[in-house]
UniProtKB/TrEMBL annotation:
Polar residues bias: start-end ranges: 1-16
Biased composition (Basic and acidic residues): 17-28
Top-rank taxon: Eukaryota
Protein name per UniProt: Predicted protein
Region (Disordered): 1-47
NCBIfam families, per database record: Atha_cystat_rel
Source organism of this protein record: Arabidopsis lyrata subsp. lyrata
Classification via InterPro entries: Cystatin-related_pln, Cystatin_sf
Coiled-coil residues: none
Acidic residues bias: start-end ranges: 29-41
Length: 206
């Protein structure tokens, strides 16, 4: 990552060529099928991205959507074991709500230790973005949350950049470290980012 206004340099590991080929074939079939004109049969029909407008605070666009995989994907795997691995990876990515890489849905890791214009590293830029959400969180909920360090981040770019940042924080002075999540959107051509949410990371199994 070289500049806040330039495209992020992202990792491309974690998704096999087989998976991308499978979904590509399914998407192509869906495009050619008149019965799928409303997109209801596509693998990721459950996703509903925020429109390119100012986001509503404390509203997660992933909430309320059902995880779906096109039944035709199963036929493209030679064994149940391979399909189960694919399915579990897709489910894990979906349940993370953007906070884990989801290459088939355009969400990638951010290299936190890369050099970046105007910052020592990309991590510093992520800290700045996360603190926008922390500030909003403290103002609206009368809290004293303090960011300690960024653990990881993912991003998705289109007409706007969506950043999903996982960080450690203290909820009160000298309190224990607690893992939190922040989501922020930075629209192209606009200087200030928009905070979307700030919340404790979900506990496993919840």
């Amino acid at each position: 990552m070289t500049s806040a206004n330039n495209e992020l340099t992202c990792s491309t590991t974690g998704t096999s060529a087989k998976e991308e080929e499978v979904v590509s074939k399914v998407d192509k079939e869906d495009d050619e099928s008149s019965s799928d004109s409303d997109g209801s049969d596509s693998e990721w029909a459950g996703y509903n991205w925020l429109p390119e407008t100012e986001p509503e605070w404390d509203v997660d666009s992933f909430d309320g959507h059902e995880f779906k995989i096109n039944p035709r994907v199963r036929k493209m795997y030679s064994s149940q074991e391979l399909y189960d691995k694919y399915y579990n990876n897709r489910l894990k990515a979906f349940e993370s709500k953007g906070f884990l890489p989801d290459h088939l849905n355009g969400i990638y890791n951010v290299y936190l230790d890369e050099k970046m214009d105007g910052y020592n590293t990309t991590r510093d830029f992520m800290v700045k973005l996360a603190n926008v959400c922390v500030k909003k969180h403290n103002e609206t909920k009368k809290k004293t949350l303090e960011l300690v360090n960024v653990v990881r981040a993912t991003e998705r770019g289109a007409a706007a950049w969506r950043f999903y940042i996982t960080f450690m924080a203290r909820e009160y002075r000298d309190g224990p470290l607690v893992e939190y999540q922040a989501k922020v959107i930075k629209f192209l051509g606009q200087k200030d980012p928009f905070p979307v949410l700030c919340r404790p990371s979900p506990k496993p199994g919840i």
